[in-house]
Amino acid sequence: MSFHIKTRSQDIQADVRMKIIMLSTVLCIALIVKFGHAQEIQFLVQNFSEFWRFAWEYPACEIRQCGNHGVREFSQCFLLSVNLSGSCRATQSSLYDYRGLAMNAVDGNLNSNYMKASCTSTQSDMNPWWRADLRRSRGIHSIRITNRRDCCSQRLNGAEIRIGDSLDNNGNNNPKCATIKSAGHSETFECGGMQGRYVNILIPGRREYLTLCEVEIFGTQEGGVDCL
Ligand SMILES: [Ca+2]
Fold first, then answer.
1. Is 7 contained in some domain?
2. Could you tell me the distance, in angstroms and rounded to a whole number, from the CA of residue 103 to the centre of ligand 1?
3. 213 C-alpha to center of ligand 1: Å?
4. How many whole angstroms from 153 Cα to the centroid of ligand 1?
5. Looking at the structure, do residues 126 and 173 belong to the same domain, yes or no?
6. Ligand 1 centre from 2 Cα, in Å?
């Protein structure tokens, strides 16, 4: 006959194990709530800054390098989310000067000094707008906008983000994701997977200059991501 004597040390170990299990469960639920549903996903990042940001935000991702062009691919994660801005085309209602090209909002450069020629600017238009063309309809999870900081950041107050597939009224009638109430330096807006080929940013109802230093559009890359 043998007796199993449960020691206090064993009680503590069991308690710790139970707490770890409970914590893991809560973490999994939180991840699923945050990212929608668990599925295999991929990230394609364009530079080391994005690489480390995604590595921080999605620690569950496996990271592997593919190709030989310095592009890192993330796989085995929770959500297909890619910065789509790098492959899009951009246009706007007018052009203020040679520094303010529409493509400057998707050039990957977050510099917020207009004089450094990485921001856009329209003239003082009535209802000025900027539009990105993602080339085909995508599910858009979030959009991060970097505002001008060398002056005039308040000009972006009241701007609307619209997403959709229509070019009626230059795309400005598409469904609204968000309104920028008080524009700071950089702000992220959640769009909940809204579907659309076009992302518009417009300032409705007044004459204004529209300036955007960077627009990062995070959404689904259907069919996976090709290694370059
Ligand atoms: Ca830029």
1. no
2. 8
3. 5
4. 15
5. yes
6. 74
| Token pair in block for residue 79 | 């959500």
**Structural domain total, the chain:** 2
For ligand 1, the distance from its centroid to the CA atom of residue 38, given in whole angstroms, is 33
Provide the domain limits for residue 203. Answer: 83-219
Q: How many CB atoms lie within 10 A of CB 184?
A: 12
Computed on alpha carbons and rounded to an integer, the radius of gyration of the chain in Å comes to 22
Q: Give the C-alpha separation, 154 to 112, whole Å.
A: 14
How far is CA 96 from each of CA 45, 100, 120, 124, 128, rounded to the nearest angstrom? 31, 6, 8, 8, 11
How much is the pTM? 0.64
What is the DSSP secondary-structure string of 121-187? ---SEES-EEEEEEEEEEEEEEEEEEPP-SS-GGGGTT-EEEEES--GGGGTTSPEEEE-SS--SEE
Domain annotation covers residue 127: yes
Distance 91 CA to ligand 1 centre (A): 14
- pLDDT, tens digit (0-9, with 9 covering 90-100), for 17-66: 777 666 655 565 555 444 433 333 445 555 556 666 666 665 544 444 43
Three-state DSSP at 193 gives strand
**Residue 77's pLDDT band (cuts 50, 70, 90):** very low
**Paired tokens of 83:** 């910065």
Within a domain: 29? no
Q: How far is the CA of 50 from the centre of ligand 1 (A)?
A: 15
CA 220 to chain centre: 11
* Residues 140 and 176 sit within 8 Å (Cβ to Cβ): no
